[in-house]
């Protein structure tokens, strides 16, 4: 494992390409359980992707004329982006509300968010029938400005740039580029403000995509308030993912995290669980209002109604109460349980809107093929590989190199 | 005032960008010189179910020949190999045939959904698909209340298949759509929407016992280019009667109209909060960096 001093020393005086070449090489052991599981799946996934471009989307998916969007949109894009919402919430807390105590988790959260957008939105290319035309809405051939998807596409692109700017000081520190770091750091606040605005609009925009599918989505999940629901739930979805991911990376990348930040972690987790409680209360209350105004009491006593109750009570109300008790009683295990329940709840909610509740009344239901699942796992594992590569090289979890502190003082 | 020039410019850029991109829904044509859309009136009382239109459609659009009638079992839907089908329904008034194809809505959900304007409502009325713009996202299929755009799932270069009312090949040359021209029973009639609605009303009033008093497509989904007459209530013909009468693009209007306000107000608000909270933590700045 590289110490921060070594990174700077390596870069000082050596040509940059030699440094990059050295950094590209893998570090650490090869035969880890994660590698043994992920490598065969990624290889199989690549084969499936080749088949998909050769034979068409229908060759490896179970999509149909009635259900044109399946796992790759409903899970990879819609659910994945909700979990990437942690980045805009944490940057809001740290840079806008100046809650400096959360500063140590900004970089890892932004990195996670950026990679999530890059890979899950990138997975969209696999789902596009004519991906060579993907730049049409960007280059203006033609602008479909009345489309929610046009808004979402532009926001994905702009938000990825904003996140890259937010993360770029870490890249500059890694490369030892002092002047670039100064310029890029000065751009952070602008990128954060722009990024939060974009996130509000496209988190809700992902819900607004389904507004025109009015009769196709089960009435318990369809309302004109889907965009607001998607936005509010992305707050605690993102934070729960930060808690969950933090509890794992604090174990896996233990050696990189400074003593001081280890001690801080506890306070951070409880602070986040407090915010989750608040956001989930707002969300639950909104859902309750929508349900009452929708007058869907008759639908509760049906199989879909039970499923709805399970989602709302078991995976929103219950984790909300657990989050509340966890920070009141200082029980860190309870926070993790609550975070996992919340994550399951968000997966359920997004899939209920996009897949399970979509055309719930059809005789033949869509079930993803094993090949769609393998491709989804391929995307996920590739992202984790890149994440691990970056964490092991850039100052993300570990402290910035010494020269950064000298310059700041 | 602590608002810097740079921040001001950022807000102005965001505003400008929003004003440039956040326009109103413009699925309906802007050209006021072409006041009326063309459409087609389908009279299921006159249709004898010969399926000639299916063959003419396949022929005119280079699609595979339809299957012979003796092989047909149950109800069919248009798909990537056939843009129209004639289905046989057993109803309270005996056998009634119904033609299915794209409805060519006045304000099409598919065109409002399309982020590249590949699906677009022409000023003449037909809703067409343009392959050089389409990226194959299939959002048109998610949005269409009639489920009419069909995707070629088994092609590496997939197209969206749907009725175009023979826009490129015939209407622009002044010819009738292939199905209308060849219908032996005059069940299909081409004309402006206004002419077709008054013709449909005339048929209903002249033979009130033969028709139900409803023109399907007059109001459904905000009105459509295809209009249907039927001897029995439209539910019996498997037509979707639960659709809203407002247009489907109107459902996303509220969301899209809120975008410019969010883009102007939220950055200003965030900057204000940032400035207000900054002074409270003068000593913690150097905590991590």
Tell me the span between the first and last alpha carbons of chain B.
27 Å
User: How many separate helices of chain A?
Assistant: 18
The description of the largest β-sheet of chain A is: none
CATH architecture of chain A: Up-down Bundle
| Structural class estimated from helices and strands of chain A | mainly alpha
Percentage of β-strand residues of chain B: 5-15%
Helix content of chain A: over 70%
Per the CATH scheme, the topology name of chain A is: Formate dehydrogenase/DMSO reductase fold
Query: Which overall shape of chain B is indicated by the principal axes computed on the Cα atoms?
Result: elongated
Tally of distinct domains of chain A = 1
What general form of chain A does the structure show? globular
Which two chains touch over the largest interface?
A: A-B, 73 and 75 residues
Topology, number of strands of chain A: 0
Arithmetic mean pLDDT of chain B: 89
Largest sheet of chain B: 3 strands, mixed
Number of helices of chain B: 7
Describe the protein in words.
The complex is a heterodimer of chains A (409) and B (289). Chain A is mostly helical. Chain A has one domain: Up-down Bundle (Formate dehydrogenase/DMSO reductase fold). Chain A is built from 18 helices and no strands. The longest helix of chain A has 36 residues. The N terminus of chain A is likely disordered. Helix content of chain B is 28%, strand content 13%. A three-stranded mixed β-sheet of chain B has the order 8-1-9. In chain B, strands 2-3 form a two-stranded antiparallel sheet. Chain B is elongated. Chain B is α+β, with helices and mostly antiparallel strands and 289 residues long. The chains are: A mainly alpha (409), B alpha+beta (289). Chains A and B meet through helix 3, helix 5, helix 9, helix 11 and helix 18 of A and helix 1, helix 3, helix 4, strand 6 and helix 7 of B.
